Structures
1.
Amino acid sequence: MEERTIVEVADNSDPIKLSENNISYLQKSSKWMRFIGDFYFFTALIVLIIALAVLVFDYFPFPQYILNNGPVMLTSICIVYMVIAVLYCLFGVYLLCAAKYFIKAINDKTALSMEKALYAEKRYWKFTGIFTMVALGITLLLLIGSVAFTL
Amino acid sequence: MEEKTESHNTTAEMTDEIPRLGMTKKSLKHLKSTSKWLNFFAILSYIGMFFLIITAIAALFRQDDKMIDATMFARIFSCICYLVIAAVYYFLGRFLFRSSTYYNEAAILDTNESFEDANKYKLLFWKYYGILTIISLASILLLIILLLLVIPGL
């Protein structure tokens, strides 16, 4: 309770007292975050190329039963790939945003810029967390479905 | 009344003794929220590690009629591979868990020390993740080159 009272005093325009170590850690982690963010975009590009290859060339080393089902199946696969590419782009955007705001916070050293950076970081982890939960849920459903189908 | 004054003085002393970072209330809320998500991922990493260890043991003691004695090496090799991946997951979980703990501490205390520890583990996590990404990319590239060399008609 006492801590909260102290915290409430901090205003958006107030300077933040970051130590040298803190600045160094934040700078270095921002660089790695940027690298991973760029990697997400690179992956999105690769996935997009695969999606277009599926659509344009009308052939990909898929199992025969997929190829037999014709363009509808291939278009569906292409759409799935595109959705994955968009998701990777979003991961990249969120991570690059967080890295950018942390660099800004180090330069500005204000409570407001740090707030923005921490919000961007939270947004990235929240998005990744929700995505992971959905992916895990779908995998579990597919697993249960396949087991039920086999029985 | 006296108690209240005493408590107020203690708070004032604490404020003087421990230099605060001066983060806003919203910032501390974001720290707390990030800490929860980091904890979630740490738990997932540990679960992944657990399953990988089970898979490694299963790979070692797998009974397959098609397998001949010569494949014992393959069994041990696959077991080691799974254990290496489990170790990778362990360190991911460890960095995430430590980061989560210190983020939570920073959200409560708002001190340079706690925020420093949180950022230290955050840096370790991203560095580790980045190095893993570089290694994976290099491995894929090497595999493609090897495939092209081994199978020229590919």
2.
Amino acid sequence: MTRVRFMFDSIQSAARALETVLLDARQTERRYSFAGVDANQILRSGLIIEGEVAEVSEKLQKIEGSVIFDE
Amino acid sequence: MARYVRQIELTKAAHMASRALADAATVSLEQLWGRYISGDIVLAKYASEVKSVVRFSYREAATVARELTMQLAELPNWEPKEPLKDTDYLESLILDVERNIAEFNESSQDDKAQRKLKLRVELSAVTAAERGFTDAQLEHYGELRSEGYTVRKLWQANFANNDPCIDCVKLSGTVVEFEEEFPVPTLRHSSVYRDLHGPPLHVRCRCVMVVLITRVENLFDRVPTENIQLPTTMTTDSVKRLPKTIFDGIIKLLRAIARRILK
């Protein structure tokens, strides 16, 4: 089980990350979970994704201001 | 008709949007203040931009609540009236902003006056995001009521990443008739801003009003007065279960937040 945590440098990059993961989750057959669930929480604590995350992780890395905090 | 628990869950999911708007407004205002202090914009421009943030927060939150009403109505081909744009409540918040900026303009504009202004305009914007959601619920569920739906209002405090005040905890679980105001708890707050037809009870209040729709299908369901929390973790499956209108509303809002802040 892969687990990755992303951190973001602004609320707009956190909002983009949440949009990215919601769209990916809606459209894909891959199975994973994520926390948190609002942009401000993501800005404070990061976005943790767990499961089949390779593709969505790649998308999140392309967001300006994102950084992989730990995995 | 969705069971009460489902109605609560969907309302709370949609309400996350107004919380996000409030957070985004705070960041926008911080940036505007930085521009004013650095001399990039004059006070009149700052005032105009602040009012724009307040209006944006109110109207976007109202739009999400409208989508929620449409989803929960489950009426084919029914659409609520146009999204709320200008209301007495919003006008009152705008007047507060104007008054506070005028007061600042006439003051010594020292550190204390600056802190006071920053705090007050932020509170107006945060309140706008919360009350925009509530006002749109009142407006559009009111339209449903005139279609013959039985609707009541339930107050729910928010315990997710939040520590509600003693009055909000006391109010949580209270059910009133649609046209009634909620009773004002007096443990910490003796009065409210304008009225208590719904949240916020106070500044930075993160409570939500759930409008319960009763039909034959859920007529004998117990109204859950305990607090129902959304999970803080979501799965790809739970995202897929979100109704399309709510999902689309959240995506639209996240995009709007990014645009607003980048502007």
